[in-house]
Amino acid sequence: MKYDLLIESVKIVCGDSLVSGDIGVKDGRIAMIGLLSPDTSADLKIDGRGLIALPGLIDSHVHFRDPGLTHKEDFESGSMSAAAGGVTSVFDMPNTVPTVTDVARLKDKIHAVSTKSYVDFGLYGGASEANLGEINALSKAGVIGFKTYMVGPSAQNSPEYEGIVSVNGVGLLKTMEATSKTGLVHAVHAEDGELVSFFSEMLKAMGRLDPAAHYDSRLNMVEALAVERAIAFAERTGVRLHLVHVSTKEALECVRSAKTRGVRVTCETCPQYLLLTNKDLERFGAYAKFNPPPRGEQDVSSLVAGLKDGGVDILVTDHAPHTRDEKEAGRTSIWDAPSGTPGVETRLPIVLTMAQAWGLNYTDIARLCSRSVAKIFGLGSRKGSLLVGFDADIVLIDPYAEYTLKASELHTKAWETFLFDGMKVRGRVMYTVLRGSVIYQHGVGFTSKPAGSFIPGPMFMGL
Ligand SMILES: [Zn+2]
Q1: CA of 124 to the centre of ligand 1 (A)
Q2: Radius of gyration of the chain (CA)
Q3: Is the pLDDT of residue 93 over 80?
Q4: Is the pLDDT of residue 132 over 80?
Q5: What span, in angstroms and rounded, lies between the C-alpha atoms of 131 and 223?
Q6: From the centroid of its chain, how far is CA 92?
Q7: 245 alpha carbon – ligand 1 mean position (Å)
Q8: What are the structural domains, with CATH classification, of the chain?
Q9: Are the C-beta atoms of residues 129 and 171 closer than 8 Å to each other?
Q10: How far is the centre of ligand 1, averaged over its atoms, from the C-alpha of 61 (Å)?
Q11: DSSP designation for 266
Q12: Is 90 exceeded by the pLDDT of residue 461?
């Protein structure tokens, strides 16, 4: 057999083990993992000596801002950033302009972004009481899951939040009743919107404009109470609840106890909750303003423990870019800056660098950043693992390369707002392979035109 691509003599993260051998790729899929004779022919051979092959990373939590907010990011810049970070699939959130709340908007978004994406992409549908009648049709049109915000935007008249916020408990319960019937994952941003409004108004009335006021408006209980409510509703409706960016010890304990009771709940955290604490809000100001805010040391330790023991299911990024000017507006008043920070490109070098401190090995990294993401979203027989028959989505890393993360080298439009500029890291993405084609190579750059495809969700019936 002649392969399209052959990666020779590489260490391969294969399920829960690390094996040495070759990877043969044919027609976009992994055709062989094992030892081949050196004269096996292939259109392209990559010498994998010294490298490690991981399943291409999946980022189930990105905001590529396309359509409508493309001054912050677009699908081209966002997906380039993904590819350079070893990410081969992204799931984009529905808070674009317009929001993705019905099938026509979903189709328009697919149309708008599909020629621009360097990586495969799934799209969330927004869900709230405002579009209950659209939920079923959205699932059949191929959304990867649903997303609801339990807290509204801080700025008035934010069109990117239209129809996807449910501060009201009954509204969220009705929404989950609708999404539970689809069988898809329902991702929830769990912060109590009423409490956030109450604390924010109180702090503003006191004249607080400093960065720490952001933290004080969203204390641990703001997240924990919302998580408890979302879990109670999941228990009642049977929905497959996924809690995005869990940041507190209290919230994680709720998730752990729900899992013990058999509730269908999963959760994620992100590098910014593991590397930063609320003290960094003082240091970085609005650049470290994201929701929920960075927490305390105890929260960090609890999340780190969860990565290893499964309490935290996946490690993704909540890549949420804004321009420098937008962030600078927070210099006089923290309330005036938007929330969010970019990260899709740097998850892998950060987790490789922190692996020892966080107690993770390569198979844990593959599980947290790829395999479990695919499984949660119903793609576990096609993506997220290096196994014969799976999509040949592969990232080759040099585990010993030491270098410094530089904001100016990132591909996101929001590179100037990057929080980890200057961080010394160990572990570099050398090649990113999407369905058998090298799309990015270190030192060379992007080696093809955008060739990412829409990933229909598991309930897709055709557009
Ligand atoms: Zn987000």
Answers
A1: 11
A2: 21
A3: yes
A4: yes
A5: 25
A6: 8
A7: 8
A8: 2-53+387-446 (2.30.40.10), 57-376 (3.20.20.140)
A9: yes
A10: 6
A11: E
A12: yes
Report the C-alpha gap between 418 and 396 in whole angstroms. Answer: 24
Cα 58 to ligand 1 centre (Å)? 15
When the pLDDT of each residue in the chain is averaged and rounded to a whole number, the result is 97
> Token digits for 453?
């495809």
Centre of ligand 1 to C-alpha 93, Å, is 7
Question: 319 CA to middle of ligand 1, Å?
Answer: 7
Residue 41 CA to ligand 1 center (angstroms) comes to 45
Q: What is the CA(282)–ligand 1 centre distance, in A?
A: 22
Residue 15 pLDDT level (bands cut at 50, 70, 90): confident
Q: What predicted TM-score, i.e. pTM, was given to this entire model?
A: 0.98
With 0-12 / 13-18 / 19 or more C-beta atoms within 10 angstroms meaning exposed / middle / buried, residue 190 is buried
* Ligand 1 centroid from CA 126, angstroms: 12
pLDDT at residue 302 greater than cutoff 80: yes
| Beta bridge pairs of residue 432 | 395, 440
In the predicted structure, residue 155 carries a pLDDT above the cut 90: no
| Beta strand extents in 152-207 (DSSP E only) | 185-189
Q: Which amino acid is at 167?
A: V
What's the gap between Cα 330 and its chain centre?
A: 25
Least confident of 67-81, 108-122, 152-166: 152-166
- The residues near 3 (Cβ < 8 Å, ≥ 6 apart) are 24, 25, 26, 31, 32, 40, 41, 42, 43
- For residue 320, report the distance from its CA to the centre of ligand 1, in Å: 6
Q: Count H helices, E strands: the chain?
A: 15, 17
**Separation CA 395–CA 397 (nearest Å):** 6
Predicted local confidence at residue 157, as pLDDT: 77
pLDDT above 90 covers what percent of the chain? 97
* Ligand 1 center–CA 17 separation, angstroms: 32
- Distance, CA 94 to ligand 1 centroid (Å)? 10
CA of 51 to the centre of ligand 1 (A): 32
CA 210 to centroid of ligand 1, rounded, Å? 23
